[in-house]
């Protein structure tokens, strides 16, 4: 692996906070402010300038680590004023240990088949100040500061350039991945950030691609994508119900029902159902919705979800500049499914490593119960077939068609990835499939993407 210097950032979306020793008897935090501990808003910087910690709130902390070779080019990246980052999520806890309030933040992930771990601990002195920092058990000299440090000057040019992509690049092409020039955006849990991709149209794709066809020059901007299909629990949390009809199992084949099946991918989803979910989730999280129907981004204004052809809903527009949730385009989907490798399936040439399909399952299985591909994505082959944004056409992806696909209605939307109900051919990273946008079924699910802004 070529030596690279990258930032690793944790944006903690959940906090387990135990207030031992952090409040006075009257319930205050020692500062006279009963609503927010004094340590919130503090920034702590390692004196070597290679890492810092910011306590954003009682619900969020950010850890930046300028590391050597901690991840390859396929890792998540975004740019901020202080440098380039890999964005990762974790939780921080505050507990009593040896009479001290101990701050603890831990992150573990797997990238390109290698495992990485960061654990930072510190004493929370008087409930206000962090001290005695350790990273993975090793003492590090830290100080409180007022701003995040600039990235180290050495090899600073390595963070802003481009590097040759593995897919196509290994076989004579010139596709590349670049550091995106974007402002800092915390990455939600279970999302992977994908760098900007430039495809020249001269690559040789193994397996052969019907999307990245010869002569097609395409730019795929940097984006986020969920590392699994949307689960039953995630769908129910937004929509209020779980429409799934497929039998659900855990990784060992034990049948699951009700909420116990929440970690299985949601199914029986039409393309229309998926875009409703995307906009509703965006609105709930304060993001800009991507989809517009009837001059509105509010699904409640669109009327009932069609169960037959509907020209109004078929005229939906997608704002790819919005930062809300959306379906991946077919080009985005195939790029990340390949994972920078030449595998037949998403992460392996052996389907049993990565997919639940007709020969090994009679229903959906818990997500992440098979191996991830080299971009850290699970279930890109098998489990449920996944909707993409694009209209499907067998012969019209030519020339300079953008990453958003063809721009005319064909009556069918793209679906990719195979399913527990189909044989291995459907699970191949290059296999294209389709369905009517109003169609539902126990094999159909989706994962979501977000444009980086």
The CATH homologous superfamily of the largest domain is termed paralog of FGE (formylglycine-generating enzyme)
What portion of the residues fall into strands of 2 or more residues?
Answer: 25-35%
Strand order of the largest sheet: 6-7-1-5-4-3-13
Look at the helices and sheets and give the structural class.
mainly beta
- Which regions contain 5 or more consecutive residues with pLDDT less than 50? 1-34, 67-90, 151-174, 176-186
**How many helix segments?**
5
Largest sheet: 7 strands, mixed
Topology summary:
Layout: E1 5-11, E2 14-17, E3 43-46, E4 51-57, E5 60-68, E6 78-80, E7 83-88, E8 91-97, E9 100-111, E10 114-125, E11 129-135, E12 138-139, E13 142-145, E14 162-164, E15 176-178, E16 191-194, E17 196-199, E18 218-220, E19 223-226, H1 232-239, E20 248-249, E21 255-256, H2 271-284, E22 291-292, H3 311-314, E23 317-318, E24 325-326, H4 330-338, H5 351-354, E25 364-365, E26 385-391, E27 413-416, E28 432-435, E29 444-445, E30 449-451
Parallel strand pairs: 1-7, 2-8, 20-25, 26-29
Antiparallel strand pairs: 1-5, 3-4, 3-13, 4-5, 6-7, 8-9, 9-10, 10-11, 11-12, 14-15, 15-17, 16-19, 17-18, 19-30, 20-21, 22-23, 24-30, 26-27, 27-28
């Amino acid at each position: 692996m070529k030596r690279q210097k990258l930032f690793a950032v944790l944006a903690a979306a959940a906090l387990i906070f135990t207030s031992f020793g952090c409040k006075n008897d009257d319930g205050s935090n020692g500062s006279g402010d009963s609503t927010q501990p004094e340590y919130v808003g503090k920034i702590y910087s390692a004196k070597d300038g290679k890492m810092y910690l910011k306590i954003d709130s009682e619900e969020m902390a950010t850890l930046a680590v300028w590391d050597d070779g901690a991840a390859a080019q396929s890792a998540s990246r975004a740019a901020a004023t202080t440098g380039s980052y890999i964005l990762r999520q974790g939780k921080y806890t505050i507990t009593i240990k040896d009479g001290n309030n101990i701050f603890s933040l831990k992150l573990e992930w797997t990238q390109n088949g290698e495992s990485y771990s960061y654990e930072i601990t510190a004493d929370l002195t008087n409930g206000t100040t962090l001290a005695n920092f350790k990273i993975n058990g090793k003492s590090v000299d830290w100080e409180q500061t007022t701003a995040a440090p600039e990235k180290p000057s050495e090899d600073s040019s390595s963070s802003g350039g481009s590097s040759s992509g593995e897919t196509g690049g290994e076989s004579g092409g010139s596709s590349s991945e670049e550091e995106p020039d974007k402002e800092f955006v915390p990455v939600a849990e279970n999302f992977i950030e994908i760098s900007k991709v430039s495809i020249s149209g001269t690559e040789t794709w193994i397996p052969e691609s019907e999307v990245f066809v010869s002569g097609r020059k395409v730019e795929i901007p940097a984006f986020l994508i969920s590392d699994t299909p949307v689960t039953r629990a995630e769908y129910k949390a937004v929509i209020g119900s779980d429409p799934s009809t497929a039998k659900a199992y855990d990784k060992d084949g034990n049948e699951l029902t009700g909420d116990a099946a929440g970690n299985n991918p949601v199914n029986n989803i039409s393309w229309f159902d998926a875009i409703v979910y995307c906009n509703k989730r965006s609105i709930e999280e304060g993001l800009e919705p991507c989809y517009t129907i009837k001059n509105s981004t509010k699904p409640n204004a669109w009327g009932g979800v069609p169960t037959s052809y509907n020209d109004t809903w078929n005229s939906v527009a997608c704002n790819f500049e919005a930062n809300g949730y959306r379906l991946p385009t077919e080009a985005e989907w195939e790029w990340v499914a390949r994972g920078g490798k030449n595998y037949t399936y998403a992460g392996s040439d052996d389907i049993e490593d990565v997919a639940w399909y007709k020969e090994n399952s009679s229903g959906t299985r818990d997500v992440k119960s098979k191996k991830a591909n080299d971009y850290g994505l699970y279930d890109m082959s098998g489990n449920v077939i996944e909707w993409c944004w694009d209209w499907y056409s067998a012969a019209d992806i030519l020339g300079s068609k953008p990453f958003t696909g063809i721009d005319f209605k064909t009556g069918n939307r793209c679906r990719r990835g195979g399913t527990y109900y189909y044989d291995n051919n459907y699970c191949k990273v290059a296999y294209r499939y389709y369905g009517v946008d109003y169609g539902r079924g126990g094999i159909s699910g989706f994962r979501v993407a977000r444009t980086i802004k």
